[in-house]
């Protein structure tokens, strides 16, 4: 399913707060902070030339965030960045002087960080990022996980010293519980979704994502004409759409938001013209995208800067995982988790539909940019879907 953006705000300027969050100046700060992270190096940008020829477009490039900071997903950039910023700001207030990233490991800053606890709800990747950020600065982390988060993903977060708190229900239930418990205990919520009165910290999380976009634009041979990005609550999609709008202005690429059919809160919001919460039904394999209510900040950006909204099926995602693992021709093998390849699944679905191709202008001149947002964060589930262990796929890459 694909619908075009008919919102009255479409093509209007970004809200001033969002324009500041996603500005080039702030993006440079994110990249400067990133230089102080262990294991930092730019993630690969792959050209899928054979697939581009098959789909009848000029080029396809995919940024592979499965290698980001050894944490397996793009979210390594968001939650931990927000934690670091919040610790530095708290230290600056208490010490009465400016505090920068180079001061992060100083005894005075560490002493302040030790008094702080950061909490969040997660499907897996965001919680890992917050836990790693807290561990880096010497703070504590409390991570809330809902019923659908696998034991493997819980263990992957717990290894960083976080307190793990199970919550019955969906991701949205865990968000509400995290907010309640953190408020009662005086902890700081570092959420990747926003709600009325809670916008700045999710904006910092979004800001952290801009680092990979600067890397991608420096590596791309030409600017993209189309971007297909997957969405859960919409934070990543909004970060990409807003940042590219700032960089390219009226020459920005056409932006398509891709969601699972079973959790399409942003598409439904676009359909009715305002943010809505959709009903929870059968779970999707795209667990990192299983969100039922959009981020208000994310929606504010996407209602202005997305050209279209679409959904993909469970089999679309599974088949795209297999296709990336066993590519044709000279295309590289890529390990993409169930949610990681949803943007590409959307492109393949749109390219195979004459009406969607025409609506989006997907022709022989189209240059597509995508992000593989995660590697196999649940290896057993990946092997069950793809039929090959992720390590074996990487051996052929």
Structural class by secondary-structure content: alpha/beta
Q: Hey, roughly how much beta strand do the residues contain?
A: 5-15%
Shape: globular
- As for the CATH topology of the largest domain, it is Rossmann fold
Spell out the helices and strands N to C.
EHHEHEHHEHEHEHEHEHEHHEHHHEHH
Mean pLDDT: 96
Q: How widely separated are the two ends?
A: 33 Å
Total helical elements: 17
Under CATH at level 1, the class of the largest domain stands as Alpha Beta
Spatial arrangement of strands, main beta sheet? 1-10-9-8-11-3-2
What is the gyration radius calculated from CA atoms?
A: 20 Å
Helix content: 40-55%
The strand count comes to 11
CATH-derived architecture of the largest domain? 3-Layer(aba) Sandwich
Low-confidence blocks of residues: none
Structure in words:
This protein is of the alpha/beta class. 45% of the residues lie in helices and 14% in strands. It folds into two domains: 267 residues, Rossmann fold (3-Layer(aba) Sandwich), CATH 3.40.50; 113 residues, Rossmann fold (3-Layer(aba) Sandwich). Helix 4 runs parallel beside helix 6, helix 9 crosses helix 10 and helix 13 packs across helix 14. The strands form two sheets. It has a seven-stranded mixed beta sheet with strand order 1-10-9-8-11-3-2, sandwiched between helices. A four-stranded parallel beta sheet has the order 6-5-4-7, sandwiched between helices.
